[in-house]
Design brief:
Elements lengths: L11 H16 L5 H15 L5 E8 L2 E9 L5 E3 L3 H9 L3 E3 L17 E9 L2 E10 L7 H17 L4
Antiparallel strand pairs: 1-2, 1-6, 2-3, 4-5, 5-6
Helix pairs in contact: 1-2, 1-4
Length: 163
């Protein structure tokens, strides 16, 4: 299958709606967790401006382990409850951190990151991992980003074979 992702334009809700449309196209007929995670990370990387890292961490043996991503090399393992990713996973709640320097225990995988959003991936009550996105500017993420990322994460969860 050939797929030409385009960078959407418009308001944040319009951009996320277009990314969701493209994600549904990428996921059509594909159930593999890693393939779908890789394609979603690439789609978000190409579709959003002002970010410097996007990717997945999967829960394995009680810790978060790096999955498909776009950006600089990243921390491979994150303990539950540690950093923004581990805290979002433990709380099972999306976290938006406007300034990572003010987040207690922030793990600086990329010194250029200034803000972050992390969405827990939960399937049938079970934590699968997190979708993490960093930006090199403070305050990059807001409620429109929360809604957009949570929708993209849900599309990934529904498309992927998680059992």
């Amino acid at each position: 299958m050939t797929f030409a992702a385009t960078r959407p334009a418009g308001t944040k809700p319009e951009i996320y709606a277009e990314l969701a449309r493209q994600a549904r196209g990428l996921f059509e007929g594909e159930r593999d967790v890693i393939a779908n995670a890789a394609n979603l990370a690439a789609l978000i990387w190409l579709g959003l401006t002002g970010i410097n890292w996007i990717g997945f961490y999967f829960l394995k043996d009680g810790e978060l382990v790096l999955g498909p991503f776009q950006g600089k090399p990243a921390c491979v393992r994150i303990a539950m409850g540690e950093g923004v990713c581990g805290t979002a996973a433990e709380r099972r709640k999306t976290l938006i951190v406007p300034d990572v320097a003010e987040f207690p225990g922030h793990i600086a995988c990329d010194a250029d990151s200034r803000s972050e959003i992390v969405v827990p991936l939960i399937h049938e009550g079970r934590l699968i991992g997190v979708l993490d996105c960093d930006a090199p500017v403070r305050g990059r993420f807001d409620e429109a980003d929360r809604a957009g990322f949570e929708n993209l994460a849900e599309l990934w969860l529904k498309a992927s074979r998680l059992v």
